[in-house]
Design a protein that fits this description.
The chain is built from 6 helices and 18 strands. By secondary structure, it is an alpha+beta fold. The strands form 9 sheets. Strands 1-2 form a two-stranded antiparallel ribbon. The chain is elongated. The structure holds 2-acetamido-2-deoxy-beta-D-glucopyranose (2 copies). This is Cysteine-rich with EGF domain protein 2-like.
Length: 290
């Protein structure tokens, strides 16, 4: 069977150009294989309805089923696998054409999952989901639910990585089974643990509200059983300078510059001046020019 269009031009480019500077953009063999399989599956979907006239005669059924498993259909799929400028993709298809043909003609029924058959078992460039590394070992926490379902297994699905867990936000531990502080277990049984963020008023907590704090967050203080915002601006010694006013916010405060007409102020704008700068005096409660 004829190979798909080859790229003499692409090959020439490869000889003439230095290697691409950002190697990060280059796909790993597994990513390459996965992309190829995705395209192949797309090609199968695109050609699934082809040659189907809409009628249902015996003749059409026969033609259709012939086409379904035909080399013609395979060729159509192969032709759509690579951009003509994608040298590596074309090279891979060229090298693997016979295998893909064998799968198409003989092995498809026995191994319906092309990714598993081609990328994992045949080329051995990928691993099945939940496994990693040269031998496709099970990820931390097992291949069924790596990292307790609360993190990403390093190298998952590839022949790389070390299988360790990178936990999602709110989780910690080698298997991502525990909540970080400022999160609490909102659902826990033998196999699952769901961590949810505490109220902003809590440093640590046992539930979702500001009544469930074990410790109050900085800028909050316990009043009876509740952590409430501390009004720093009401402190005996105000935290801001003479030329600023204080604004209380949850858990903290900010210092803002007074209006330019003020000498000291209690808030925003010329109406909140304690006194006016020279040349200005209070009119209707505001500092105004003479
Ligand atoms: C634990 O909780 C999860 C999530 O709600 C649930 O799917 C699972 O069946 C539970 N397992 C057990 C052993 O109760
Ligand atoms: C301030 O905290 C209270 C109590 O936790 C909360 O109800 C309110 O929405 C918070 N306000 C802002 C602006 O975050």
């Amino acid at each position: 069977m004829r190979p798909p269009p080859r790229t003499a031009f692409g090959f020439l480019l490869l000889l003439l150009l230095p290697p691409a500077p950002d190697a990060a953009r280059k796909l790993t063999p597994c990513q390459q294989c996965r992309a190829l399989v995705d395209k192949f599956n797309q090609g199968m979907a695109n050609t699934a309805k082809k040659n189907f006239g809409g009628g249902n005669t015996a003749w059409e059924e026969k033609t259709l089923s012939k086409y379904e498993f035909s080399e013609i259909r395979l060729l159509e799929i192969l032709e759509g696998l690579c951009e003509s400028s994608d040298f590596e993709c074309n090279q891979m298809v060229e090298q693997q054409e016979e295998r893909l043909e064998a799968w198409w003609l003989q092995l498809k029924k026995k191994y319906p999952d092309l990714f598993e058959w081609f990328c994992v078992q045949t080329l051995k460039v990928c691993c099945s989901p939940g496994t990693y590394g040269p031998d496709c070992s099970a990820c931390q926490g097992g291949s069924k639910r790596p990292c307790s379902g609360n993190g990403h297994c390093n190298g998952d699905g590839s022949r790389q990585g070390d299988g360790s867990c990178q936990c999602h936000i709110g989780y910690q531990g080698p298997l991502c089974k525990d909540c970080v502080s400022s999160y609490f277990s909102s659902l826990r049984n033998e196999t699952h643990n769901i961590c949810t963020a505490c109220d902003e008023s809590c440093k640590t907590c046992s539930g979702p509200t500001n009544r469930d704090c074990l410790e109050c967050e900085e800028g909050w203080a316990r009043v009876e059983d509740t952590c409430l915002d501390v009004d720093e601006c009401a402190a005996e010694t105000p935290p801001c300078s003479e030329t600023q006013y204080c604004e209380n916010v949850n858990g903290s405060y900010t210092c803002e510059e007074c209006d330019s007409t003020c000498v000291g102020c209690t808030g925003k704008g010329p109406a909140k001046c304690k006194q006016c700068v020279s040349g200005y005096s209070k009119e209707d409660g505001q500092c105004a020019g003479q």
